[in-house]
Amino acid sequence: MTLNHLQKEFDKMMNRDYFSDTVHPMRKEAFAQFLDLGFPTKKWEDWRFTNLSPITKQDFSLSEIQDAPQDDLDISAYEIEDTHTIVIFNGHLQNSISSLENGVSLMSGLEYLTHKNDGFTQAKNTPFDLLNTAFMDSGIALVIEKNMAIKKALRILFITSSTKNLMISPRVHIDLGNASSLSIIEHHVGDSESAFQNESVFVSIGENAKLDHVRIQSNANTVSNMANIHVQQEDDSHYSFFQFANGSQLGRLNLRAELKGEGAYCRLDGLALSTNNQHLDHHIIIDHQVANCISHQNFRSVLQDKSSGVFSGRTIVRKNAQQTDSHQSNKNLLLSKNAFVHSIPQLEIDADDVKCAHSSTTGALDEESLFYLRSRGLDILSAKNLLVQGFVSEMIESVKHEATQKMIQSHLQNWLNSNA
Amino acid sequence: MLKIKNLHASIDGKSILKGINLNIKPGEMHAIMGLNGSGKSTLANIISGREGYAITKGDVIYQNESLLEKSPETRALDGVFMSFQYPVVIPGVNMTYFLKAALNAHRKHRDEEELDAIGFLKLIREKIKAVDIDEKYLKRAVNDGFSGGEKKRNEILQMITLEPKLSILDETDSGLDIDALKIVANGVNQYRSSENSFLVITHYQRLLNYLKPDFIHVLIDGKIVKSGDMSLASILEEKGYAWLEK
């Protein structure tokens, strides 16, 4: 995508009255900064191993009002039981088929910025953060007041379905008041032949509040999916994140968690299953800014064919973040000689009284285990599949929402069967 | 049941087996004794189908067909079982799930109906009694957190569940205390019949005292140098192997 083309799309956006002009100054500033930087190249340290050509070599156009569904949407194919669902189709919120539990207020992105009364700073960590601010379309905010325990899981269903090369820039704010709790599931689906989704999620977790965040990236294998997740945690807050990715041609998770309050607990897990020429990344930064916080990272990938991926996990422990307890594990299973993965664990520790551990392993299926299973009568394919299931089972079983766990299990089965 | 004919095998160009001949009939138990490096485990591995060995001469005939070109799973389904010297720990793979899948592969192969979860549980609850394994181990990953003795009992559990015709016990006695040894021996003895054959590989006499094999063979430097009955085991225990070496 040329910057010229992006400029044209941006001008188009400025001229559409359904994009509120209140945020235009913000957009303009972000877009100008983006143009200064351009898309990352392989010369950029954090982008060395991510081939962005699926995004940069095609032109994508703004998702406009006519790209919203004209008729009632049937979402039964994407059912997950026991959830409330908010539907976003090609970047457009579908209020009529969305449901919410009492205690959750759904605001527009604009309302949220007003609600925060200028107390919100746009992210500028990567060009994609800036691009999201410039083009954000489906801005929604989920705001939970303090002391609210939201029982039923809330799913945001992102459907990307169009014959056009759409650029979709979802923006989600999740704001949990003190001592509240919420379970949220991002569910990314759709049959678009080509699309570029550049999603930004801002998570703010108040003191003693608890958020379970599951992200399922199961859209078509022709889509490019950039997820920019920003998390801020206050004292004694609890955040657990799990991403399951089997969709997208190019998928990259950029997650930055800032532990700003003492006693915060942050657990980040991810599982990617890739095949053909898919490239699925996990780029994690955990920033321990204060003392007595705990963080865990556990990321795994299983790679078939010529697929590739990156795990980059940076744990930052600032000078006053004493008594930090941080653990990081990355395991990759290569099912093909042509698959490859880059594992880049990084520790930046400025405090002296901390516990930080990390480990990384990459390898093929264990021959001895394979022989053991076969010697018991399992054919080679069943034996391989069983070992892959063993490799990923602890990750999938950590998903607390039962119907979601079941759905991920069935994705795994389909993935194994389609590689048979 | 099993005929090993003039078997020569090597690993990485190094000759290990130098002409093994052995004939095991239905219902017989044969023991192969020998020191480390004599080729005992190589023989077990070749029969069960482990890769990495070059067969330079000879053949292994099982039920009138050569085994050598067959995959490990085909051999298993045809009734060949090996109790591993070092059972593998497989994290994340549930013991019950694994054993049920293995049993159902066998049942399918025998044109029997596959067992569902309830049917399998009923069967396995009976089987674990024979090897004194607590039911909680069935909920763990395969061999995960099992002690040395528990791993070996688990091997015997798999044997009596899959019901092979030819069972190879590769140093099943190593690392067992006397109680575990008795349990393992008892599990094996219960499974003996006029149809089931065994090849027991060991360094020591103590397991054989419980199993009382029909034949004992001494393997030295890739060849069977002496065969006999249980009395041979006692002589070996007393005199060692040196008197048999050239």
Structure explained in plain terms:
Chain A has 420 residues and is an alpha/beta fold. Chain A folds into two domains: 3-366, no CATH class; 367-420, no CATH class. Chain A is built from eight helices and 21 strands. Chain A has helices at 3-15, 24-37, 53-56, 109-115, 127-135, 367-374, 380-397, 402-418; strands spanning 61-62, 83-89, 92-94, 104-108, 140-144, 153-159, 166-168, 171-176, 181-189, 195-205, 210-217, 223-233, 238-245, 250-259, 265-274, 279-288, 294-303, 308-317, 325-334, 340-349, 355-363. In chain A, strands 1, 4, 5, 7, 8, 10, 12, 14, 16, 18 and 20 form an eleven-stranded mixed β-sheet that branches. Chain A is globular. Chain B is an alpha/beta fold. Chain B has one domain: P-loop containing nucleotide triphosphate hydrolases (Rossmann fold, 3-Layer(aba) Sandwich). Chain B is 37% helix and 29% strand. In chain B, strand 9, helix 6 and strand 10 form a beta-alpha-beta unit. The longest helix of chain B is centred in the middle third of the chain and has 15 residues, at 95-109. Chain B is globular, with a radius of gyration of 18 Å. The relative contact order of chain B is 0.19. The mean pLDDT of chain B is 94. Classes of the chains: A alpha/beta (420), B alpha/beta (246). The interface between A and B is medium-sized, with 24 and 32 residues.
Can you tag this structure with a few keywords?
heterodimer; A: 420 residues; alpha/beta; ten-stranded mixed beta sheet; globular; B: 246 residues; 8 helices; 37% helix
Topology of chain B as a string of helices (H) and strands (E) = EEEHEEHEEHHEHEHEHEEH
Q: According to CATH, what is the topology of chain B?
A: Rossmann fold
- Count every beta strand of chain A, where a strand is a DSSP E run of 2 or more residues: 21
Q: Count of DSSP helices of chain A?
A: 8
Main beta sheet strand tally, sense and closure of chain B: 6 strands, mixed
Give the overall silhouette of chain B.
Answer: globular
Count up the domains of chain A: 2
**Which oligomeric form is depicted?**
heterodimer
Number of domains of chain B: 1
Q: What characteristic shape of chain A results from the CA principal axes?
A: globular
**Order of strands side by side in the largest beta sheet of chain B?**
6-9-10-3-11-12
- Taking the alpha carbons of the first and last residues of chain A, their distance comes to 36 Å
SSE class of chain B:
alpha/beta
Q: What would CATH call the homologous superfamily of chain B? A: P-loop containing nucleotide triphosphate hydrolases
What is the strand content of chain B? 25-35%
Largest sheet of chain A: 11 strands, mixed
Based on helices, strands and strand pairing, what is the structural class of chain A? Answer: alpha/beta
Number of strand elements of chain B = 12
CATH hierarchy, class of chain B: Alpha Beta
Low-pLDDT segments of chain B: none
